[in-house]
From TrEMBL:
This is DEAD/DEAH box helicase. The keyword ATP-binding applies. The lineage of its organism: Bacteria, Bacillati, Actinomycetota, Actinomycetes, Kitasatosporales. It comes from Streptomyces griseoruber. CDD domains: DEXHc_Hrq1-like, SF2_C_Hrq. GO terms for molecular function: 3'-5' DNA helicase activity; ATP binding; nucleic acid binding. NCBIfam families: DECH_helic (TIGR03817). Residues 266-418 form the Helicase C-terminal domain. Gene3D superfamilies: P-loop containing nucleotide triphosphate hydrolases. GO terms for biological process: interstrand cross-link repair; nucleotide-excision repair. Residues 748-775 are annotated as: Disordered. The keyword Nucleotide-binding applies. It holds the Pfam family WHD_HRQ1.
Length: 775
């Protein structure tokens, strides 16, 4: 990729000289055109989204107007001075931005008082933040659960609120993004109550239609600044396929070296040459494993080098995260194996290379990770190391699928009634809801209020709706959908807390016998107490890693609606999805060779939700020439493609929905494909799929049939989140099966031509598996 030629600009005249001097002190003498344009819009009172590439200086675009305003006491309606709120999707990013603000404003004395307010903030510091900080850095979770419900204690801050910065706003997508959109509407409502109307400044990675997504997120008209004028050195992007090993897999298939081991070797080679590198990988275990292998290899070359490589992931204690971030900034660390926590905008200037272990699922994430290198204007290297699965294999052999296609759109739906309802309750608990609030929360609000009254959550008195319960209304919903108390990982011999793991991941990662890696040390899990949410571990050195195996099944609880499609049937109703971790494999670290399997006795986890499903008969299978040998692959392929196309018909995201395909389902007694909402109680996506099923499945069939690949690819039937490794899949069988199914669709159910197939956008990592799961 050639270097970008930046175009210089000048700061808008209205920006105070002291601010420009501070910026120049920070090392930037002149802005680039997009930075100056964004600052100008913000100072004019326009909400603005800056959607330019990684390392394009978006933080400067919003910090200049924020600092300029905070230094000008005349902006405040009281003696406190103007205030600003910064929202980041991760704690690490908020802490990093606080450091940047302190450096930027240092020449100006104490006029700018930045402070982080999140779950790690000590209670003794929180009162100071509320009373004296004028630039508060937090996250949507803390805004939802901590700040808005206690708005009376934040009245002085909210009364003076001039700017709200929403950083990395492209990460607010799917159901998570819809929740954040309603949290921001609650914030705007309270600000209006206290007499302020803040300007929103949003920063996004390159995305399709950023102003549209930003408008949905904030509920305000937003000006788009997307013409990237920043300079950048040349980025060399390599696609790397690990070599074949002598091992054989199922049915004698050759096995490639693991992407984890290959990435660790590349990280080692780069560190030996003094190349500052970050290696990205999806899983926490993978990040630890890469760092351990690299440290062992480096110790063979130079023992001092082993200390200059580490892992960075969620679940670390706050002080551990801060120490790693500081070591990376200072250059003490040469290499870091990280999860996506470092993808989201942390300033790691000076990096020379980025390794990406496995396709991250979307082109937007791929470019965001690759952009971490070369942030100081120098040339850089990015390497995508393919995993041994069909999707990654396709990409390394078809680079045009990565480099010749645009990034995905950011998909969210703030009007989703399943998301809106709990936020209306939270808003009513903050201040009674009035008819004047209906427009703010969207067109679905008026219809939902009577339902909330009937459920005895809200009560109407005179012209306002009030929260009726003793419990906190904000606790009705978890905006990230994680659910459950985090499991604490405790060293058995000392009682020392090593870290935490999300409740949803505990069964698969800290079960009895699991190998747990923490900052280069290896531990064995001795016991997992689900009642107390504690996993006890002891340090050990097993010559293997562990991988959990699970099963997923789906049961029909109630069929609300059923429509005949010829011999087939289309149904909508309530289902229960059951997932259970049943065993774990022990694998050699480098080769991935399976050493053995151990059974586990863990309770199943259930999700009651809503689903749409369709069935076909034996006669239809015969007509479609789908025999039993290819039936599983044909159903599986149709399931994947239909999930990928559903965002065209329901405002959802691939990560918001799950699927199961079964050659003979015990409830329907027929081959069946289910698509379900990946959220308790449903989120409205399956219902929308049912009502548009004719057009939706017609588009699905066309997407598969029109794809130029031979046996299936990420553009048609392969899924980036398939729990079965995209196996089995049968492209031609899926086309014939859908063709036969659609013969029986009533003509009125297929309005107009099918839309063109596009890939679903990125979304929150909601564990809604896709794949054939036979009970």
């Amino acid at each position: 990729m050639p270097p970008r030629e930046g175009r210089h600009a000048v700061w808008p005249d209205r920006i105070r000289p002291e601010v420009i001097a501070a910026v120049q002190t920070y090392g930037i003498a002149d802005p680039w055109a997009h930075q100056a344009l964004a600052a100008e819009h913000a100072l004019d009172g326009d909400s603005v989204v800056v959607a330019t590439g990684t390392a394009s200086g978006k933080s400067l675009a919003y910090l200049v107007p924020v600092l300029s305003t905070l230094l000008d006491g005349s902006e405040a309606p009281n003696g406190r001075g103007a205030t600003a709120l910064y929202l980041a999707p991760t704690k690490a990013l908020a802490a990093d931005q606080r450091r940047s603000v302190k450096e930027l404003s240092h020449p100006l004395g104490n006029a700018v008082r930045p402070a982080v307010y999140d779950g790690d903030t000590p209670f003794e510091e929180r009162e100071w933040v509320r009373q004296y900080a004028n630039y508060v850095l937090t996250n949507p979770d803390m805004l939802h659960r901590g700040i808005l419900p206690s708005h009376s204690r934040w009245s002085s801050f909210l009364k003076s609120l001039k700017y709200v910065v929403v950083d990395e706003c492209h990460t607010y997508r799917g159901v998570f993004g819809s929740h954040v959109a309603q949290v921001l509407r609650r914030l705007r409502r309270l600000c209006a109550r206290y007499g302020s109307s803040p300007v929103f400044l949003l920063a996004s990675a390159t995305a399709a239609e950023p102003a549209v997504a930003a408008g949905r997120l904030t509920g305000l008209p937003v000006v788009e600044v997307a013409d990237d004028a920043s300079p950048r050195g040349e980025l060399v992007f390599a696609l790397w396929e690990p070599p074949l090993t002598e091992l054989q897999g199922e049915k004698g298939a050759p096995v490639r070296r693991t992407a984890t081991a290959e990435t660790a070797d590349l990280l080692t080679d780069l560190a030996v040459q003094g190349v500052r590198t970050v290696a990205f990988i999806r899983s926490r275990r993978g990040a630890e494993l890469i760092s351990v292998i690299a440290q062992e290899r480096l110790a063979e070359v130079d023992r001092s080098l082993a200390r200059r490589v580490a892992a960075y992931r969620g679940g670390y204690l706050p002080e551990e995260r801060r120490a790693l971030e500081q070591a990376l900034h200072s250059g003490e660390l040469l290499g870091l194996a990280a999860t996506t926590a470092l993808e989201l905008g942390i300033d790691v200037s000076g990096l020379d290379a980025v390794l990406i272990a496995g396709y991250p699922g979307t082109r937007a994430s791929l470019w965001q990770q690759a952009g971490r290198a070369g942030r100081s204007g120098q040339g850089a290297l990015a390497v995508l190391v393919a995993r041994d699965d069909p999707l990654d294999t396709f990409l390394v052999h078809h680079p045009e699928a990565l480099f010749d296609r645009p990034v995905e759109s950011t998909v969210l739906d703030p009007d989703n009634p399943y998301v809106l309802a709990p936020h209306l309750c939270a808003a009513a608990a903050e201040l009674p809801l009035t008819e004047e609030d209906l427009a703010l929360f969207g067109p679905e609000t008026e219809a939902l209020l009577p339902q909330l009254e009937a459920a005895k959550l809200l009560r109407r008195r005179t012209k306002a709706w009030h929260w009726t319960r003793r419990e906190r209304a904000a606790d009705l919903t978890d905006i990230r959908g994680e659910g459950g108390r985090p499991v604490q990982i405790v060293e058995e011999g000392t009682g020392r807390l090593l870290g935490t793991v999300d409740a949803g991941a505990a069964h698969a990662t800290v079960h009895e016998g699991a190998v747990h890696l923490h900052q280069g040390r290896t531990y064995l899990v001795r016991s997992l107490d689900l009642d107390d949410s504690v996993a006890l571990v002891e340090e050990a050195a097993p010559p293997y890693s562990t991988v959990a195996r699970d099963t997923t099944s789906i049961a029909v609880l109630e069929t609300d609606t059923e429509i005949p499609w010829g011999q087939g049937r289309l149904c909508y109703g309530s289902v229960e999805v059951t997932n259970q971790v049943v065993s774990f494999l022990r694998r050699r670290v480098i080769t991935g060779e399976v050493l053995g399997e151990s059974k586990l006795d863990l309770p199943p986890r259930t999700l009651r939700t809503r689903a749409v499903w369709w069935t076909v008969t034996e006669d239809q299978l015969d007509a479609a020439r789908v025999n039993p040998e290819i039936l599983g692959g044909a159903l599986h392929a149709a399931e994947h493609a239909s999930i990928g196309l559903l965002p065209l018909f329901a405002t959802c995201d691939r990560w918001d929905i799950g699927g199961v395909s079964v050659p003979l389902h015990p409830d329907t007694l027929l081959p069946t494909v289910f698509v379900y909402d990946g959220h308790p109680g449903g989120a409205g996506f399956a219902e929308r799929a049912f009502h548009t099923a004719g057009a939706w499945l017609t588009a699905t069939r066309e997407a598969i049939a029109s794809c130029e690949c031979d046996a299936g690819c990420p553009s048609c039937i392969q899924s980036p989140k398939c729990g079965n490794g995209n196996d089995p899949l049968h492209k031609r069988g899926a086309v014939r099966l859908l063709t036969e199914l659609l013969r029986g669709v009533p003509q009125e159910a297929v309005p107009g031509p099918a839309p063109q197939a596009v890939e679903a956008g990125p979304g929150p990592a909601i564990p809604a598996p896709e794949g054939p799961h036979v009970p």
